[in-house]
Amino acid sequence: MGIARKAGTLFLAAIGGGGYLWLNRSGELNRTLKVIKRDVAAIRDRDPAATSMLETLTCYSGLHAILLHRMAHFLYEQKLPVVPRMISQLNRFLTEIEIHPAASIGEGFFIDHGSGVVIGETTEVGDNVTLYQGVTLGGTGKETGKRHPTLHDNVTVGAGAKVLGSVTVGENAKIGAGSIVIHDVPPNSTVVGNPGRPVRERGRKVGASDLDWTHLPDPVADAMQSLVRRVVELENEFKTAFPEKAAEIERAQEEGERELDRVFDYYHGLGI
Ligand SMILES: CC(C)(COP(=O)(O)OP(=O)(O)OC[C@H]1O[C@@H](n2cnc3c(N)ncnc32)[C@H](O)[C@@H]1OP(=O)(O)O)[C@@H](O)C(=O)NCCC(=O)NCCS
After folding, report:
1. Could you tell me the residue ranges of all domains in the chain?
2. Sign of CA dihedral 162, 59, 55, 10
3. 192: CA distance to ligand 1 center in Å?
4. C-beta separation of 153 from 169 below 8 A
5. CA pair distance 217, 222, nearest whole angstrom
6. Contact 99, 105 (CB under 8 A)
7. Nearest CA among 30, 29, 114, 24 for reference residue 69
8. 8-state DSSP, 153
9. Is the pTM of this model over 0.90?
10. Which ligand 1 atom lies nearest to the CA of residue 160?
11. Angle, helix 61-77 to helix 29-46, in steps of 10 degrees
12. What is the band of 272 on the pLDDT scale with cuts at 50, 70, 90?
């Protein structure tokens, strides 16, 4: 284990050194440094536990993972065979975060805690996205081609959530911890549970404003009314079958109606 880690670190140092020289020569160094600065700033902005720059640079596997991924992705785009996958596997070994080199990830990306995060090959991630530990941006196993999610800017995915398939998560959306999302998520919404269901849309609780509190469905009252209707029908049939009892039945019906009116008035709030 110790030797493997040392070999991995040396491999990365060699790739990193080569990358630095290449970037310096091609004039890309400034742009790369800007992207790295934004990844570091994302941690300082979003994690109150990040107290110093030294701590941020040394103690965040999420930062190490995205830096290694940016290196792997760059080499992948240069069409270098195998090496990007090797860096990705090394990344997984060192940080427990697996990101396919082809995955495209925007600036200001932050994986908090890190362990168990998997990001698939055709995933696209916008700017300022936050993932917590155990998140999978994966495939359903049924699709080919673009088979992993697209996350727009400012999305947050809670711990252990799984976003599966070629779904789109709109900007500013939040996915609750432990959710399983297999359908598109609208912008500015919050989705929780399995299967993921929206609990907030455009920042407002789903259903809250539309609820008609005075006319909630009441299955007990509905059942009582249907029973009463049935009794009245039977009494009417009885009256036809036994005309000599009609007056007695009508008196009982009137009395019953008065009682029922009182019950329903009470039920609807009058007697309280
Ligand atoms: C979903 C989340 C972002 C909160 O969003 P919100 O819009 O403020 O939602 P609310 O807290 O108002 O909750 C809305 C409803 O969703 C439910 N809910 C919230 N989070 C949930 C979750 N992860 N799973 C299932 N239900 C959840 C609430 O109980 C509430 O239900 P109710 O309306 O029936 O009472 C937050 O709960 C969450 O999961 N954050 C992830 C944090 C994380 O991963 N932290 C790891 C740190 S190590």
Report:
1. 1-95, 116-214, 219-267
2. negative
3. 7
4. no
5. 9
6. yes
7. 114
8. T
9. no
10. 44
11. 150
12. very low
pLDDT band at 224 (very low <50, low <70, confident <90, very high): confident
203 C-alpha to ligand 1 centroid (Å): 13
Q: Ligand 1 centre from 179 Cα, in Å?
A: 10
pLDDT tens sequence across 146-179: 999 999 999 999 999 999 999 999 999 999 999 9
Mind giving me the DSSP string for 128-144? S-EE-TT-EEE--SS--
Q: Is there a contact between 63 and 57 (Cβ–Cβ < 8 Å)?
A: yes
| Burial zone of 53 (CB within 10 Å; 0-12 exposed, 13-18 middle, 19+ buried) | exposed
Mean predicted confidence (pLDDT) in 13-34: 73
Q: What is the Cα–Cα distance from 196 to 174, expressed in whole angstroms?
A: 11
d(CA 253, CA 251): 5
Greater pLDDT, 70 or 245 = 70
Q: What is the pLDDT of residue 271?
A: 47
CATH topology assigned to domain 116-214:
UDP N-Acetylglucosamine Acyltransferase; domain 1 (2.160.10)
